[in-house]
C-alpha cells in the first residue's frame, strides 16, 4: 500500500485549508509521523492484517518516534500538546487502527494511569522504559460481565497481611499477552482501586482472543488473576473509585476523536485515487455524477470531523475540556468514519473486498473502535444527560 495523497489535488486533501490553523511545530510533528506510517506501516499492513500479527518490532521504533505517552511530561515522555498527540493519532490510524490502538493503550491508558495516580517509585520504575518502547503496558478494566457497566466488576483485591491478593478475570484487554506490566482495577473494601501488576507475577495469565474479523493487526486478550499476590506498594496511591479509570478512558477517547479521521481520510484518498485511474465506458469513474457525489460527501464529513477534533484539542490544551464534550467527538467522528470507509469501498466495486485496498479493512476495524472506550450508545447517553440533565443509564 503506497501513499496516494501526494498525487492528488491539494483541494481534495485539505478543502478548507485547515492546515493554516496549525502551527509550524504541529505540522512538523504530523509530517514526521505521516512519513513513518508511509514507510513502515502502509507497505506491511496487508500482510500483518491477513496473518493477524501485531508487529512487535515497531514498538521501539514508536518509542524513538516519540509517540508513546507523548502527551505526558517528565519521566522520558515528550510533553507534547493535546493537538500534537491528536495529529499523531490521526496519522497512525491512517495506517491502521491497530497501530493507533497500541499507542493509545500504552500511552493514554497504562502510562496515563501511572502518571496521574502512581507513586514516585512506580513512575520512575515504569514510565521511562515505556516511553522508549522497552516495556509494554496494558490496562485491565473491562470484564466478561462488566463492559459498559464497570461498576459491576467482580475482580476483587483483598488485604493479606501488609500486601494484597487479587482474584478475577478481565476481557478485551489490549496488549496483555505481550505486556510487561498491567494496570488492574479491582474492587476492595474501600471501593475500586488500581494496582500495578508485573505480568510475570504468579497467577497472572493472558490469552489472545483469536479468530477476530476486526483489529486483526492488534492484540486483545482474556486475562485471569488467580491468587495474585502483591506488596502493599503495588496499589496506585492517588486513584480511588471509578473516577480513576474513567479519567484514563477519557484520554483514550480523546485520541480516538482524531484517530478515526485517519481511517476515514485514508479510505477517501484511496477511493479518489482509484476513481481517477479506473476507466469504465471510456472515461475515469471519477467523472460520473454518482461517484463525485460520494467523494464530496466524504470530503465534507472528513473536514467537519477535523474541525471537531481540532476545536476539542484546543479546549483540552486550554484546560477547559469536559468529558461530555469528548463524547461528542468520539461519537460523531467514529460514526462518520465508518460511513466513509463503507462508502469508499463501494467505489472499488468487487476489488474493494480484497486487502489490496484499505477501505474495507478500515471499516472492519472501526466496528471495534465504535465499540471500545464506550460504545456509541454509551456516548449518546452521556450526551443525553448533558443536554437534559437526566441520567438514563439505569
TrEMBL record:
Any matching Pfam family: Acyl-CoA_dh_1
Family, per entry: Belongs to the acyl-CoA dehydrogenase family.
Chemical reaction(s) catalysed: glutaryl-CoA + oxidized [electron-transfer flavoprotein] + 2 H(+) = (2E)-butenoyl-CoA + reduced [electron-transfer flavoprotein] + CO2
EC numbers, comma separated: 1.3.8.6
All copies of domain Acyl-CoA oxidase/dehydrogenase middle, residue ranges: 138-228
PANTHER family: GLUTARYL-COA DEHYDROGENASE, MITOCHONDRIAL
Alphabetized Gene3D superfamilies for the sequence: Acyl-CoA dehydrogenase/oxidase, N-terminal domain, Butyryl-CoA Dehydrogenase, subunit A, domain 2, Butyryl-CoA Dehydrogenase, subunit A, domain 3
Keyword set, alphabetical order: FAD, Flavoprotein, Oxidoreductase, Transit peptide
Domain annotation Acyl-CoA dehydrogenase/oxidase N-terminal: ranges: 24-134
Record domain Acyl-CoA dehydrogenase/oxidase C-terminal: where: 247-387
Keyword Oxidoreductase set for record: yes
Enzymatic class: oxidoreductase
InterPro entries xref list: Acyl-CoA_DH_CS (IPR006089), Acyl-CoA_Oxase/DH_mid-dom (IPR006091), Acyl-CoA_Oxase/DH_mid-dom_sf (IPR046373), AcylCo_DH-like_C (IPR036250), AcylCo_DH/oxidase_C (IPR009075), AcylCoA_DH/ox_N (IPR013786), AcylCoA_DH/ox_N_sf (IPR037069), AcylCoA_DH/oxidase_NM_dom_sf (IPR009100)
Cofactor requirements of the protein: FAD
Protein name per Swiss-Prot or TrEMBL: glutaryl-CoA dehydrogenase (ETF)
Protein's UniProt keywords contain Mitochondrion: no
PROSITE patterns in the record: ACYL_COA_DH_1
Pathway where it operates: Amino-acid metabolism; lysine degradation; Amino-acid metabolism; tryptophan metabolism
Amino acid at each position: 500500500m503506497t501513499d496516494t495523497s501526494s498525487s492528488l489535488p491539494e483541494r481534495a486533501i485539505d478543502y478548507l485549508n485547515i492546515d493554516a490553523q496549525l502551527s509550524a511545530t504541529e505540522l512538523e510533528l504530523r509530517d514526521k509521523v505521516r512519513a513513518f506510517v508511509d514507510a513502515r506501516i502502509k507497505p506491511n499492513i496487508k500482510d500483518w492484517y491477513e496473518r493477524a500479527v501485531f508487529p512487535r518490532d515497531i514498538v521501539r521504533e514508536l518509542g524513538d518516534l516519540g509517540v508513546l505517552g507523548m502527551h505526558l511530561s517528565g519521566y522520558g515522555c515528550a510533553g507534547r500538546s493535546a493537538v500534537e498527540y491528536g495529529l499523531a493519532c490521526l496519522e497512525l490510524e491512517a495506517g491502521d487502527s491497530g497501530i493507533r490502538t497500541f499507542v493509545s493503550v500504552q500511552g493514554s491508558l497504562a502510562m496515563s494511569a501511572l502518571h496521574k495516580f502512581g507513586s514516585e517509585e512506580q513512575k520512575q520504575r515504569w514510565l521511562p522504559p515505556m516511553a522508549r518502547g522497552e516495556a509494554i503496558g496494558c490496562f485491565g478494566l473491562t470484564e466478561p460481565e462488566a463492559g459498559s457497566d464497570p461498576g459491576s466488576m467482580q475482580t476483587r483485591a483483598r488485604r493479606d497481611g501488609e500486601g494484597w491478593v487479587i482474584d478475577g478475570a478481565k476481557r478485551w484487554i489490549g496488549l496483555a499477552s505481550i505486556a510487561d506490566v498491567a494496570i488492574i482495577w479491582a474492587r476492595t473494601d474501600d471501593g475500586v482501586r488500581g494496582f500495578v501488576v508485573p505480568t510475570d507475577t504468579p497467577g497472572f495469565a493472558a490469552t489472545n482472543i483469536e479468530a477476530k474479523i476486526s483489529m486483526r493487526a492488534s492484540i486483545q486478550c482474556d486475562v485471569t488473576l488467580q491468587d495474585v499476590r502483591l506488596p502493599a506498594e503495588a496499589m496506585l496511591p492517588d486513584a480511588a473509585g471509578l473516577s480513576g479509570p474513567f479519567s484514563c478512558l477519557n484520554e483514550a477517547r480523546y485520541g480516538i476523536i482524531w484517530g478515526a479521521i485517519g481511517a476515514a481520510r485514508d479510505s477517501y484518498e484511496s477511493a479518489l485515487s482509484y476513481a481517477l485511474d479506473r476507466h469504465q465506458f471510456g472515461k475515469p469513474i471519477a467523472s460520473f455524477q454518482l461517484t463525485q457525489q460520494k467523494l464530496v460527501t466524504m470530503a465534507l464529513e472528513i473536514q467537519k470531523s477535523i474541525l471537531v477534533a481540532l476545536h476539542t484539542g484546543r479546549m483540552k490544551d486550554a484546560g477547559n475540556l469536559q468529558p461530555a464534550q469528548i463524547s461528542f467527538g468520539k461519537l460523531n467522528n467514529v460514526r462518520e468514519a465508518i460511513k466513509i470507509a463503507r462508502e469508499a469501498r463501494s467505489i472499488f466495486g468487487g476489488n474493494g473486498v480484497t486487502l489490496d485496498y484499505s477501505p474495507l479493512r478500515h471499516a472492519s476495524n472501526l466496528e471495534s473502535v465504535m465499540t471500545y472506550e464506550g460504545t456509541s450508545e454509551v456516548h449518546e447517553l452521556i450526551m443525553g444527560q448533558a443536554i437534559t440533565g437526566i441520567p438514563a443509564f439505569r
